[in-house]
Amino acid sequence: MSKRKNNRAWFLVLPTLIIVAFSAIIPLMTVVNYSVQDILGPNTRVFVGFEWFREVLRDAELHGAFLRQVLFSLAILLIQIPFGVGVGLLMPRRGWSASLCLVIIALPLLIPWNVVGTIWQIFCRTDIGLGGAFLDGMGVDYNYAIDPVDAWLTVLVMDVWHWTPLVALLCYAGLRAIPDAYYQAAQIDGASPWAVFRHIQLPKLKNVLIIAVLLRFMDSFMVYTEPFVLTGGGPGNSTTFLSQFLARMAVGQFDLGPAAAFSLIYFLFVLLFCYIFYTVVMRPDDAPGS
Amino acid sequence: MSWMAWTLATGIFFACIFTVLVVMAVWEQISPTVERRGFLPMATTRGDRLFIGLLCTAFIYLFWLATTDASPWLALPGSLIWMAAIGRWG
Prior knowledge:
The complex is a heterodimer of chains A (290) and B (90). Chain A is mainly alpha-helical and 290 residues long. Chain A has 13 helices and two strands. Chain A is 72% helix and 3% strand. In chain A, strand 1 and strand 2 form a beta hairpin. In chain B, 67% of the residues lie in helices and 0% in strands. The longest helix of chain B is centred in the first third of the chain and has 23 residues, at 8-30. Chain B starts with 7 loop residues before the first helix and ends with a helix. Classes of the chains: A mainly alpha (290), B mainly alpha (90). The interface between A and B is medium-sized, with 27 and 23 residues.
């Protein structure tokens, strides 16, 4: 007997739909409207078609920001995922030391993003900061305010410090969910620690790692506050990422038309990456190539 | 509504999008979609193929605007053909 569908459930979704319409869809439609006009004043605007899109897409500074953004996100994934897995593996599984580790590792996640930027800005200054003064004392020529490489390394280390705990905690939760029977079977077979990691822990962590990669990629792709506070996008444009570029265009220069066009392009890329990750995450385990 | 800075072109664009969504919803009621696998690397429903088609169209337009000064209308036939191909064989 076929099950009868109850469409009244749709009415329960209606309040959410209304809230989403006001908080997301209507503003998005407004951005689309702005992106095809030259906004000269509150009630003065001229239709320009795709002109802003053309201008933004051919902007060499934007290409630079996009490349830096992709590089930053890839570097974040390449560092944070293996590092987080390593930390998760090293964390004690039981007892008071496990609780202590969890609290200490979770601490960076509790700090507001702008405070993280401020902490690292002070920490890395060679005159008053512990980290900067230490490097200076070791004879390392380090100054994140004038050297692009130093600025990049500082932003990367700051992000690793801030967000690796998230990956580590996710991995730790995944590792705790593996039944002891697997380890007992591996012990009976005389498996090495590497074999246990390769054939038991890593496959069992697959779903957790996909979520970690998704979260870290999306978050790093939209990073704004920490680099803004730490380096202000400098020296030059060396640590100016996409969201900072957008904020400068929209708020700093008040170029609402180009900023709206750029927002939509940025949104499309975020949507594309989200969809790819969503498809990978939702792919059934028995699918070919999975 | 003047704060939303409407233009005729964007009005028509959103009207088309909403019409497509309504048509898809009605179609779903009349004939529920079945997941199937075509040339895309995963099984998709009708809604998935519409979404992928629209996203591809957006990127075709971005590529067009980034690389040529020719009228964006010239990118429309290619985009529609690609959308139709995804809908039929995707």
